[in-house]
Design brief:
This protein is an alpha+beta fold. It has a single domain, classed as Alpha-Beta Complex (Phosphoenolpyruvate Carboxykinase, domain 3). The protein contains five helices and eight strands. It has a four-stranded antiparallel beta sheet with strand order 1-2-4-8. Strand 6 and strand 7 form a beta hairpin. It is elongated and about 65 Å long.
């Protein structure tokens, strides 16, 4: 995604839109989820029942990734067995949200979970960003579906996703392997 030249406020997954005469600005964040096809609703039902890494059971939370690649990496960590054998009913989806997430302080998982629990109970913001443990250059972005602004979040735009297709052997692997094995 391209950002306006020189705009230092735009970060990963963000798009800055400026108005002409009034110079109004708002920030649209493109946020990503990789989920099973039947679980694309942004209602937090999964975490309501099971909890999440940073949220307790009994409270709905929608987990997003700031980058599509992070969504894939996180899902990959939870797949049992060979990822190429994973079911083909996954969907990679995104939505754009015009909200700036509150930054969760860097801490251990217990402290982050406590912070997130307070944030959820207080409903003080729609989004909170936690630095990813998988890819620290990206964020896990939590959305509180009970926040009043949650009803304005558009549904996911999805496409089918296959771990088998994503993780296939690259066509050039044999060529590169042969070149690296060639005598000098």
């Amino acid at each position: 995604m391209a950002f306006p030249p020189g705009d230092k406020d735009a970060g990963p997954g963000e798009r800055v839109v400026t108005g002409n005469a009034s110079a109004l600005r708002f920030l649209c964040m493109r946020l990503w989820r990789l989920t099973r096809s039947g679980h694309t609703a942004l209602d937090g039902a999964g975490t309501l029942e099971h909890g999440g890494r940073y949220s307790p059971p009994g409270v709905p939370v929608v987990n997003f990734a700031s980058e599509a690649g992070l969504a894939v990496l996180v899902a990959l960590r939870y797949l049992p067995g060979n990822p190429a054998d994973a079911p083909d009913d996954y969907a990679l989806g995104w939505t754009e949200i015009d909200s700036v997430p509150e930054r969760v302080p860097d801490a251990d998982d217990d402290a982050i979970r406590e912070w997130v629990t307070d944030w959820l109970q207080e409903r003080r913001g729609l989004l909170a960003a936690v630095r990813s443990q998988v890819l620290p250059e990206a964020n896990v972005v939590l959305m509180n579906p009970l926040h009043p602004d949650a009803s304005r979040v558009p549904p996911l735009v999805t496409r089918p996703f296959s771990f088998g297709e994503c993780l296939h052997t690259p066509p050039m692997l044999a060529r590169y392997s042969a070149e690296s094995e060639a005598p000098p």
